[in-house]
Design goal:
Oligomer: heterotrimer
Distance between the termini of chain C: 13 Å
Number of domains of chain C: 1
Number of helices of chain A: 11
Chains: A alpha/beta (344), B alpha/beta (343), C mainly alpha (294)
CATH class of chain C: Mainly Alpha
Largest sheet of chain C: none
CATH class of the largest domain in chain A: Alpha Beta
Structural class of chain C: mainly alpha
Number of helices of chain C: 13
Order of helices and strands of chain A: HEEEHEEHEHHHEHEHEEHHEEH
Largest interface: A-B, 57 and 57 residues
Shape of chain C: elongated
Strand content of chain A: 15-25%
Mean pLDDT of chain C: 82
CATH topology of the largest domain in chain A: Rossmann fold
Radius of gyration of chain A: 21 Å
Low-confidence stretches of chain A: 1-13
Shape of chain A: globular
Number of strands of chain C: 0
Low-confidence stretches of chain C: 290-294
Mean pLDDT of chain A: 89
Largest sheet of chain A: 8 strands, mixed
Strand content of chain C: under 5%
CATH superfamily of chain C: MetI-like
CATH architecture of chain C: Orthogonal Bundle
Distance between the termini of chain A: 22 Å
Helix content of chain A: 25-40%
Order of helices and strands of chain C: HHHHHHHHHHHHH
Structural class of chain A: alpha/beta
């Protein structure tokens, strides 16, 4: 219990920290092309008007099911995909409005860790070249200095520097993910976007990597945007959590607030669907959602969740609820959040 | 109330002949499944859980996988001794299998209805017309909306959740006694997973079928299983009813597994991880296979492999120090290995 | 390098691939050792086959001409030895150049996509619309006969296959996260192509190259046979076969196969050469295709 209090104090302390990254009205539409002349017949609104911010030193979790736009959001922030509209302010400058050349300078400060420990490392490059790739691109150090740095950072992520000359296929999944982390870390970044960084790993290895990320955050004062579909992992590592559904943010809150007092029906359903590894817990109040997630190419009108929502009223299918701060640091996009609060 | 034993696996061994030599994928697996009960097999990748199910179904890749030793007794018959023809009658009708990715298990060039109908025509001897009506009924039962339309769709036209439902409809259509589900919800989102698990529970109850649920997810196990077998590196390391297993795990691997997952109901500052990696099949440690990752290993563990012993009635474990486990498991040395990775 | 060693090890396990490899190595050795195996009488023009007289009737193998002579008394042995060099020259030049064009077009097309892809692929389609042999013959006729012209004509109608193959391969490789990771690290586009994309998409092309090393000399031989290839007397397998045209079955009574050596030796060279590359390509396909290297 004391631990819990301590954690709550921790996250309180972080609310005073300054905002490091602010995403405003971010949109990314992918065209749907058809026919001989590749005419655009529609748009997949993968990310549709998303706004949130990340404070310095915190971990912001971004959860949602497949197709909700969480990965696209992460990639758009780093301009790995060019956004359709919106702004991303980092230390007061808009990353999305920069020239590509200038953006490349900022890339050292904003790094990414990828999901697939197999696909994200070039199979034909040696570990030393993989880890030094960013340094080389940014013209940091000479060959010798880079080599020394690579060895130093391999040690930091728990890899033996003796392996610098090996190829990725000689490593296990967890070790590969460490290589990916070293590659990001060596750039001395402020923010790291972790895109499903532990989803592909076995549970025992997953814990190793989560602990490593935790240690590195403390040592280097890192800020994480942690994108994942696994609620338990997100809860463990995050200070605050953003929940996305079909390209929209439905709720943002500190993790305790979100888990104890979810104000969006979708959040509540998501939490209740999450299996608990304890066979003695009977879950009578489980909410089982009906139907599938609709296609982001043709999202429902009004609130996007209304066809699956048990609280839905006529207004939900007509008017889209805005994301509003209903409690300090707790944002929700639902017409009936007050009713949800009463139920909780 | 003791239920009848439906399937009994005794001392099952499976080997793989690879280019680099023959390796043992599972060695000496024993368990039983009772009528109407769910057995969970849990373990990480490479532990042999999927190989176990394929060995039971005799679906190992020909010429590569082989079962040199062991028995699979189903209703008094040893499945491993049956002819291929007899086995075909059992597959689908008596024992059905659900795969992780239904897209690969369904034939992309036939409609889902056709595939279901074909199976019931074959096993239940229905006419085409009856089979299609039956397919609609089954689709309705598994909660597929507009079943009379959906049966004419191809697998790729269905969403992941619906595809898994179609797969379940197909597998339940011949009213099998035993269902083997290999990571049936791993590819699905949580809300869809909840739907599918819910559906499986209902169907099992209705048909009084048994289930072997293979998964890496302890949460799913806790919700679905009556009994659990924990596998590690080709061995069952612990085998018990679900509640005692979670309450009093008596193998260090089970302990480590439970401590290393982040849980929604418990808040920890730091996870307890298991050091190192799963050994590969060619380089198994001598003695206990978990010895090189075990925080409690003593000299004996590195020399001699422990047998599976009964700790309490119905609770088996494969550890030399099981008697001290309750005391030992209060402390867990993660041994986070910085700078000295094993390979 | 490590990948290469692995490929070699796998090659060594399969008898057909060993056969292919040995045949190819044999021909490589012949090509390299040509000046030793068949000393050119005029060192300035080694590709010109020496003539032992002017008789229009081929002479059977003798101590002097161990494989016999063709009509016009060209030494068949000399022609086969130096013809090996011609075959390699053709293959390396044509495939090398076609590969460079193909790599360029295919990579640009796939990496940039959009209208660039559209334009480049339509151009490729236009070249593909011509029947290969007819196209080559037209070009050679326009430029005039000669080995160099044949090589250029082959290049013009040969790069499209590579372009398409490379485009497909690059499109596949491009989807890998390590390409995205490279961009996230600020690696410039050109470096991503040379560092990440090309090394990973080149393997399927190796198979095609091996197969084509067999095809190209065959095509050139066909053109030489038609009289469109090398000038008269140039050491070239196609020309040797073309010389034997009238002597395959003897028309002057007696033993109908009296001049067997005129067709047998050159054909054998062509067949073994093509077989070697084909076997090698086939086994490369088996080895590389399941992506066992990764």
């Amino acid at each position: 219990m004391r631990k819990l209090e301590k954690l709550q104090n921790d996250s309180k302390a972080k609310t005073d920290e300054k905002v490091l990254l602010e995403v405003k009205n971010l949109k990314k539409y992918f065209p749907i092309k058809a026919g001989v002349f590749k005419r655009t017949v529609g748009w997949v609104k993968a990310v549709d008007d998303v706004s949130f911010f990340i404070r310095k030193g915190e971990t912001l979790g971004l959860v949602g099911e497949s197709g909700c736009g969480k990965t696209t959001t992460g990639r758009t922030i780093l301009r790995l995909i060019e956004p359709t509209a919106g702004s991303v302010h980092y230390n007061g400058e808009d990353l999305l409005a920069m020239s590509k050349r200038k953006m490349n300078k900022y890339r050292t400060k904003l790094q990414m860790i990828f999901q697939d420990p197999y696909g994200s490392l070039d199979p034909r490059m040696r570990v030393k070249d993989i880890i030094a790739e960013g340094l080389k691109a940014a013209h940091i150090g000479n060959r010798k200095e880079r080599y020394e740095m690579v060895k130093e950072y391999m040690e930091k992520v728990g890899l033996s520097p003796l392996y610098v000359n090996r190829f990725p296929h000689e490593f296990s999944g967890g070790q590969r993910q460490r290589i990916g982390i070293a590659r990001a870390l060596i750039m001395n970044p402020e923010l790291i976007v972790c895109d499903e960084a532990v989803s592909a790993l076995d549970v025992s290895i997953q814990a190793q990597i989560l602990n490593l990320l935790d240690d590195l955050q403390k040592e280097f004062n890192l800020t994480y945007l942690f994108i994942a579909h696994d609620l338990n992992v997100v809860k463990h590592i995050s200070d605050r959590i953003v929940v996305m559904y079909l390209g929209k943010i439905v709720e943002i809150a500190s993790k305790h607030e979100l888990f104890n007092n979810p104000l969006h029906p979708y959040t509540k359903a998501l939490l209740s669907a999450n299996p608990i590894p304890d066979p003695t817990i009977e879950r009578k109040d489980r909410i089982i959602l009906q139907g599938d997630v609709p296609s982001p190419a043709n999202p429902p009108k009004g609130c996007r969740f209304h066809p699956r929502c048990w609280l839905a009223k006529p207004v939900c299918s007509e008017e889209e609820p805005p994301l509003v701060e209903v409690r300090p640091d707790h944002y929700v996009a639902c017409h009936f959040w007050e009713e949800m609060e009463k139920q909780n | 109330m003791v239920k009848d034993v439906l399937l009994q696996v005794k001392n099952l061994h499976t080997v793989f002949h690879t280019e680099d030599g023959t390796v043992e994928a599972i060695g000496g697996v024993d368990f039983e499944v009772r009528q109407g009960e769910t057995l969970g097999i849990v373990g990480e990748s490479g532990c042999g859980k999927s190989v176990t199910s394929l060995s039971i179904m005799r679906l190992l890749p020909k010429g590569i996988g082989e079962v040199p030793q062991g028995e699979v007794i189903y209703k008094g018959k040893n499945l491993l001794k049956l002819s291929e023809r007899e086995m075909r009658k059992i597959r689908g009708k008596e024992i059905a299998m659900i795969f992780q990715e239904p897209m690969t298990a369904l034939n992309p060039v036939y409609t889902v209805g056709e595939q279901l109908a074909e199976m019931v025509e074959l096993h239940l001897g229905m006419s085409k017309k009856e089979a299609y009506d039956y397919a609609i009924k089954m689709f309705e039962k598994v909660g597929i909306p507009m079943p009379e339309k959906r049966i004419y769709e191809y697998p790729h036209e269905l969403s992941g959740g619906l595809r898994q439902r179609a797969m379940i409809a197909m597998m339940m259509s011949c009213n099998p006694n035993l269902l083997i589900a290999d990571e049936p919800t791993t590819a699905l989102d949580v809300t869809i997973q909840a739907q599918v698990l819910d559906l499986m529970r209902e169907l099992l109850k209705e048909y009084n079928s048994s289930l072997i649920m293979i998964t890496h997810d302890l949460g799913v196990i806790a919700e679905m299983a009556d009994r659990v077998a924990v596998m590690y590196a080709g061995r069952i390391v612990e085998y018990a009813d679900v509640v005692p297993l979670f309450k009093k795990p008596s193998h260090p691997y089970t302990v480590g597994l439970m401590r290393s997952i982040p849980r929604p109901d418990v808040e920890v500052d730091r996870l307890d991880s298991i050091k190192g990696v799963v050994p590969d099949l060619f380089h198994m440690p001598k003695g206990c296979r978990f010895s090189n990752r075990c925080p409690y290993a003593i000299d004996k563990c590195f020399e001699e492999e422990p047998p599976l012993v009964e700790v309490e009635p119905g609770h088996y474990t494969r550890c030399w120090r099981y008697q001290e486990m309750e005391e030992l498991s209060k402390h867990w040395e993660s041994g986070e290995e910085v700078g000295k990775t094993s390979k | 390098m490590e990948g290469f060693v692995k490929v070699l090890k796998k090659l060594m396990r399969n008898p057909t691939s060993i056969a292919g490899l040995l045949l190819v190595l044999l021909f490589v050795a012949i090509a390299i050792l040509a000046p030793v195996l068949a000393k050119p009488p005029y060192p300035d023009t080694p590709y010109q086959m020496p003539q032992n007289g002017w008789s229009s009737v081929p002479q059977p193998p003798s101590h002097e001409d161990i494989f016999g002579t063709t009509e016009g008394q060209y030494d068949i042995y000399y022609g086969i030895i130096w013809g090996t060099r011609t075959a390699f020259k053709l293959g390396i030049f044509v495939i090398g150049l076609a590969l460079i064009i193909g790599l360029f077009v295919g990579t640009i097309s796939a990496y940039f996509g959009g209208w660039v892809d559209e334009v480049l692929m339509r151009v490729t389609d236009i070249f593909l619309a011509f029947p290969f042999l007819v196209g080559v013959i037209v070009i050679v006729t326009m430029l005039g006969p000669g080995l160099n012209h044949v090589m250029w004509a082959l290049v013009i109608f040969y790069w499209m296959g590579y372009a398409r193959l490379i485009r497909g391969s690059v499109l596949e490789v491009k989807e890998n996260d390590y390409v995205m990771a490279g961009r996230a690290l600020g690696t410039p586009g050109a470096r991503i192509i040379t560092r990440h994309i090309l090394p990973n998409s080149i393997y399927p092309i190796l198979i095609q190259v091996s197969m084509d090393m067999a095809t190209i000399p065959l095509t050139a031989a066909a053109l030489s046979f038609l009289g469109l290839g090398a000038p008269v007397g140039y050491a070239d397998w196609g020309q040797l076969v073309s010389f034997s045209r009238n002597w395959i079955i003897s028309s002057s009574g007696g033993n109908p196969f009296a001049y067997w050596y005129t067709i047998t030796y050159p054909s054998l060279a062509i067949i073994l050469y093509a077989m070697g590359w084909n076997l090698l390509g086939d086994s490369l396909r088996d080895i590389l295709d399941p992506r066992m290297l990764i």
